[in-house]
């Protein structure tokens, strides 16, 4: 948690660190489970650990966007370019939906950068506003020297963030690309797409595409509809 030193109170940094430790040891993402995990990891009293986690999560002064403002530049430091995927995830049992931006990596697992969670019952008519909020905040905190390509699935995002005209027929394009607000956009479309290309690194040489464990760039790629 040295990333946050100097950007927030030391006790808050300590509470965040302890919560992360609790999450790594917890069997579920609940306040009680995280508290038990923290107690086991640090040999603390469970009741005290649960109360500590509860106080952290109910602290109105803990602003997620303040945390993201430090976290995102740290993750992107040393990079000249980055591919960021924007997607929605639903948690049916909790009745919640999360709009999250993840850094696409070459080791097969994305890194969470920023997100916003809302109650599904309150999402109707608000999805656009939530997406805009995540993108706007992300755009403000990304280092200016990092060239970003944003992946999205919704054409609404492109229409809202740009008034330019698409080249060609959007309905026949598997991917639509634009440059908006200094961000390059690639919009995925729900149609059958055949992608061909050559990859330099993959643990499955017989595969024409990188496997899920070896995501990476393709040289001279081509895409066509099936």
Topology:
Layout: H1 10-25, H2 31-42, H3 46-57, H4 64-76, E1 81-91, E2 96-103, E3 111-119, H5 127-141, E4 147-152, H6 155-161, E5 175-180, E6 183-188, E7 193-198, E8 219-225
Parallel strand pairs: 1-4, 4-6
Antiparallel strand pairs: 1-2, 2-3, 5-6, 7-8
Helix pairs in contact: 1-2, 2-3
Q: Summed up, what is this model?
A:
This protein is α/β, with parallel strands linked by helices. 33% of the residues lie in helices and 26% in strands. The chain folds into three domains: 2-57, no CATH class; 64-188, no CATH class; 193-225, no CATH class.
Could you tell me the mean pLDDT? Answer: 76
Domains, number: 3
Strand arrangement within the widest β-sheet reads: 3-2-1-4-6-5
Cα shape: globular
The secondary-structure element order is HHHHEEEHEHEEEE
Query: Helix fraction?
Result: 25-40%
Radius of gyration: 20 Å
Please outline the major beta sheet: 6 strands, mixed
The helix tally amounts to 6
Oligomeric form of this entry? single chain
- pLDDT below 50 for ≥5 consecutive residues: which ranges? 161-182
Distance between the termini: 48 Å
Which structural class fits the helix and strand makeup? alpha/beta
Organism: Haliangium ochraceum (strain DSM 14365 / JCM 11303 / SMP-2)
Protein name: Transposase
Can you put this structure into words, describing what you see?
By secondary structure, the chain is an alpha/beta fold. It folds into three domains: 2-57, no CATH class; 64-188, no CATH class; 193-225, no CATH class. Helices cover 33% and strands 26% of the residues. It is built from six helices and eight strands. The chain has helices at residues 10-25, 31-42, 46-57, 64-76, 127-141, 155-161, and strands at residues 81-91, 96-103, 111-119, 147-152, 175-180, 183-188, 193-198, 219-225. It has a six-stranded mixed sheet with strand order 3-2-1-4-6-5. A two-stranded antiparallel ribbon has the order 7-8. Helix 1 (10-25) crosses helix 2 (31-42) and helix 2 (31-42) packs across helix 3 (46-57). The chain is globular, with a radius of gyration of 20 Å. Residues 161-182 have low confidence and may be disordered.
